[in-house]
Amino acid sequence: ASKITIAIDGFSSTGKSTVAKQLAKELGYIYVDTGAMYRTVALYALQNGFAKDGEVEEEKLIQDLSKIQIDFKYNNQLGFSEVYLNGVNVETKIREMEVSSYVSKVASISAVRQKLVALQQEMGKSKGIVMDGRDIGTVVFPNAELKLFMNASAKTRAQRRFDELQAKGNTEVSYDEVYENVVERDTLDTTRADSPLEMAKDAIEIDNSNLSREEQFDKILSLVKAKL
Ligand code: C5P
């Protein structure tokens, strides 16, 4: 069968990455989490003092962009890829609240987007890829054969992210803080000037507030099979 490109966009914590990983496994495709790439740049900004007191020093970060090397390496034990910043595994660090609180500001910088979009397009040039993010169907792969747009209520999404953090032993964060971060990122992501989060005209919307993981996966898999 021919290989296709699958673009999955949507608001934060809509379960994009869970579906994307499952799909990639099922199809033998590469999975790329583009949120992890923006988070890695935000982590670099934090580590170098360019992100502090709620602000990001754009010029300094832009000057340093060529020093930021982002790689994905497949972890056989875990069964998925982990992200590396200049050779260091940062997969756990990039999920922390401190990174979450700066990432949307970092992602609004055009020079950052240009660098990451170019990398993403390179990774997908042979197709056979499932990529999730905010602008995959609109900017990165406007010609993707299948575009999905995932949605769920902010409450549902905050609860999921909160449960995820708790499960990882991150117990000092409250549900309210997580909810506020989800809502704040929604606003920043949909209102930024460069590549705001929006549904591509030819995307299929999936609201999973009331769908189980299995129901959702079956639904999506049948959409994929119709394209193969
Ligand atoms: O997907 P995740 O929630 O980890 O993404 C973190 C942040 O990175 C988003 O809130 C958004 O600001 C940014 N992002 C983006 N474009 C993408 C992926 C993520 O702007 N393609």
How many β-strands, per DSSP? 10
Query: What is the average of the pLDDT values?
Result: 96
Spans of 5+ residues with little confidence (pLDDT < 50)?
Answer: none
Strand coverage percent: 15-25%
The helix content, as a percent range, equals 40-55%
How does the helix and strand content classify structurally?
Answer: alpha/beta
The strands making up the biggest β-sheet line up spatially as: 2-8-1-9-10
Distance between the ends: 6 Å
Largest sheet data: 5 strands, parallel
One letter per element, helices H and strands E, the order comes to EHEHEEHEEEHHEHEHHEH
Calculate Rg over CA atoms. Answer: 17 Å
List the total number of helices: 9
- Shape from CA axes? globular
Name every ligand kind in the structure.
cytidine-5'-monophosphate
InterPro entries: Cytidylate_kin, Cytidylate_kinase_dom, P-loop_NTPase
Catalytic activity: dCMP + ATP = dCDP + ADP; CMP + ATP = CDP + ADP
Subcellular location: Cytoplasm
Domain Cytidylate kinase: 6-225
Q: Care to describe what's here?
A:
- This protein is an alpha/beta fold and 228 residues long.
- The chain has 9 helices and 10 strands.
- A 5-stranded parallel β-sheet has the order 2-8-1-9-10.
- Strand 5 (70-75) and strand 6 form a beta hairpin.
- Helix 2 (34-47) crosses helix 4 (97-106), helix 4 (97-106) runs parallel beside helix 8 (175-191) and helix 7 crosses helix 8.
- The mean pLDDT is 96.
- It catalyses: dCMP + ATP = dCDP + ADP; CMP + ATP = CDP + ADP.
- ATP binds at residues 10-18.
- Keywords: ATP-binding, Cytoplasm, Kinase, Nucleotide-binding, Transferase.
- It holds the Pfam family Cytidylate_kin.
